[in-house]
Specification:
Blueprint (H helix, E strand, L loop, with lengths): L3 E5 L6 H13 L6 E4 L5 H8 L5 E4 L16 H6 L2 E6 L2 H7 L3 H13 L3 E6 L3 H5 L3 H9 L9 E4 L13 H15 L5 E4 L7 H5 L6 E4 L6 H6 L4
Parallel strand pairs: 1-2, 1-8, 2-3, 3-4, 4-5, 5-6, 6-7, 7-8
Bound molecules: phosphoenolpyruvate.
């Protein structure tokens, strides 16, 4: 299976960055296994740049509502309309800073699936949970949110590894990925995220149960991001 490589720009972006980061990615002959998720205002200009390539566009979040009087929200149908094929749901920054919980996240997943967006559902434990020996149980509990829903992509992102320069070990990654597949089905793609860079991407992709990468900081430099994509 070709690994799925997703770049998450988070709250970083400008028209200038669409040109300087996305244009080289669009010109590099990369496949549809590569996805970039810029902030919402840049989806349309990003779509314009990427349309000459196979690289796909993703969103970082989606509303739990379809339409109506919900100021500031962006619906799944709108994301689809501006060219997204995928959305992240439940990133640990959404859970941690914006209080997103299981009932809310389930509605978001349902909205996205309803319009045919692929969902990358993010899970991952905080450091104290890992240190207590409860990482796998915690992640499997987070996945209960998806019970009885159509299949989605899962991203395992230990919170203590996001943006910290610290990656989980091979054994830690393999254990959690294999537990996720055992619970959700062997065919469910499971991505790893947490301080993935050009110089550790290949070794992480070689770990048992890793089907791709979700990349934050390193997706903000075109050369570095492209170097994470196996070719
Ligand atoms: C992320 O944003 O999901 C992420 C993993 O960030 P970073 O690669 O910067 O750790």
């Amino acid at each position: 299976m070709t690994p799925l490589i997703i770049g998450n720009w988070k709250l970083n972006g400008s028209i200038e960055m669409i040109k300087s980061i996305l244009q080289p990615i669009a010109d590099a002959g990369l496949g549809e296994n590569v996805v970039v998720c810029p902030p919402t205002p840049y989806l349309l200009p990003a779509h314009d740049v990427l349309k000459s390539s196979k690289v796909r566009l993703g969103a970082q979040d989606v509303s739990q509502y379809a339409q109506g009087a919900y100021t500031g929200e962006v619906s799944a149908a709108m994301l689809k309309d501006v060219g997204c094929s995928l959305t992240l749901v439940g990133h640990s920054e959404r859970r941690g800073y914006f209080g997103e919980n299981t009932p809310l996240l389930r509605k978001k997943v349902e909205q996205a699936l309803e319009v045919g967006l692929e969902v990358v559902f993010c899970v991952g434990e905080r450091l104290e949970v890992r240190e207590e020996g409860n990482a796998i149980a915690f992640v499997l509990e987070e996945l209960q949110c998806l019970r009885n829903l159509p299949p989605v992509i899962v991203a395992y992102e230990p919170v203590w590894a996001i943006g910290t320069g610290r990656t989980a070990t091979t054994v830690e990654i393999a254990e959690v990925h294999c537990a996720i597949k055992a619970a959700m089905g062997e065919n469910v793609p499971v991505l790893y995220g947490g301080s993935v860079k050009a110089d550790n991407a290949a070794s992480i992709l070689a770990i048992d149960g890793v089907d791709g990468l979700l990349i934050g900081g390193a997706s903000l430099k075109a050369e570095e991001f492209m170097a994470t994509v196996p070719r």
